[in-house]
């Protein structure tokens, strides 16, 4: 049976912390079928309403945003960007939108409290983000998103996603708040600290999340991270698997078992999957520290 590949978007929210760059991670509910219990970036699949053609007139810079995803048509490109904004709002309570005067929406913006009350309905699909945005006279800030990675779930998985990853600075005046529906916690962390917590067994990080954190370790502030992302090549990455009895190892391009993919670099290319957790390992399955 062929597992369908569903389009999805992920948003890496960034802020300048006291000790350097920080990212916002949410813990997926244990009952969620895909990556339950893992700490990930806010995200989810693209819904039909995300591809509505009316977004072309209801969002800033949508023409440029669609040009960033040259491997898909306009409707799909719109869908990936809108889904990124919608998921950031649903799972993290951060809305990337502008008021009529061009200022980014903040916690003090009139109407945001109303939209926050609609988060659950939005997540359930009973209301549309397009309608909520238009009712406030706001515009989606598609230009706030910087496309920087493309991950595809391998065929061995029972659920597969074609996921586009975006960076986005936390707008001034907004405070993330996880939704308590699909995620059970939200935390800011420096990339290196999140990786250390994973190695200590405190949190679980899937390989795409781990690899993204490794990339972001190199940057001390939001400005430099966004500049890197704007000029980064974005190859399609589909991890592989090594099955040894009941032991499963996730592999990334550059591993001895996989060809190199131009434009992709990763410090760790093997992850042992056991007990719902991924642990980086060497070719000899020694833990990487």
Task: Please describe the structure with a list of short key phrases separated by commas or semicolons.
alpha+beta, single chain, 8-stranded mixed sheet, 4-stranded antiparallel sheet, 27% helix, disordered C terminus, 289 residues
Description:
- With 289 residues, this protein is an alpha+beta fold.
- 27% of the residues lie in helices and 27% in strands.
- The chain contains nine helices and 15 strands.
- The protein has helices spanning 55-58, 62-68, 74-92, 112-117, 119-124, 129-136, 191-199, 207-216, 222-230; strands at 5-17, 20-28, 39-40, 43-45, 59-60, 97-98, 139-141, 146-152, 160-169, 183-189, 236-237, 240-244, 247-251, 270-274, 277-280.
- α2 packs across α3 (74-92) and α7 crosses α8.
- It starts with a strand and ends in a 9-residue tail after the last strand.
Share of β-strand residues: 25-35%
Q: SSE order in H/E notation?
A: EEEEHEHHEHHHEEEEHHHEEEEE
What Rg, in angstroms, do the CA atoms define?
19 Å
Helical run tally: 9
Poorly predicted runs? 285-289
| Backbone shape | globular
How many strands, what sense, and barrel or not for the largest sheet?
A: 8 strands, mixed
Q: Give me the secondary-structure category.
A: alpha+beta
């Amino acid at each position: 049976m062929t597992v369908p590949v569903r389009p999805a978007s992920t948003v890496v929210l960034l802020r300048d912390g006291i000790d350097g760059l920080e990212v916002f991670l949410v813990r997926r509910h244990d009952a969620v079928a895909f990556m339950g219990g893992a700490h990930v970036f806010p995200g989810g699949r693209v819904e039909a309403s995300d591809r509505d053609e009316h977004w072309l007139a209801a969002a800033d810079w949508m023409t440029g945003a669609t040009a960033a995803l040259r491997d898909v048509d306009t409707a799909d490109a719109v869908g990936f960007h809108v889904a990124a904004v919608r998921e950031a709002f649903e799972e993290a309570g951060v809305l990337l939108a502008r008021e009529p005067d061009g200022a980014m929406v903040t916690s003090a913006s009139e109407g945001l409290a109303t939209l926050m009350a609609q988060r659950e309905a939005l997540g359930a699909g009973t209301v549309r983000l397009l309608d909520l945005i238009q009712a406030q006279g706001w515009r989606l800030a598609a230009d706030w998103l910087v496309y920087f990675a493309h991950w595809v779930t391998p065929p061995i998985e029972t659920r597969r996603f074609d996921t586009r990853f975006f960076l986005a600075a936390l707008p001034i005046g907004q405070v993330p708040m996880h939704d308590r529906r699909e995620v059970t916690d939200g935390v800011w962390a420096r990339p290196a600290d999140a990786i250390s917590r994973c190695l200590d067994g405190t949190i679980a990080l899937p390989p795409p999340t781990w690899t993204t954190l490794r990339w972001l370790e190199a940057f001390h502030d939001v400005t430099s991270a966004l500049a890197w992302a704007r000029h980064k090549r974005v190859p399609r990455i589909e991890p592989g698997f090594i099955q040894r009895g009941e032991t499963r190892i996730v592999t990334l391009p550059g591993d001895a078992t996989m060809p190199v993919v131009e434009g992709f670099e990763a410090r760790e290319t093997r992850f042992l999957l056991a007990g719902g957790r991924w642990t980086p390992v060497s070719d000899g399955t020694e833990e990487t520290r």
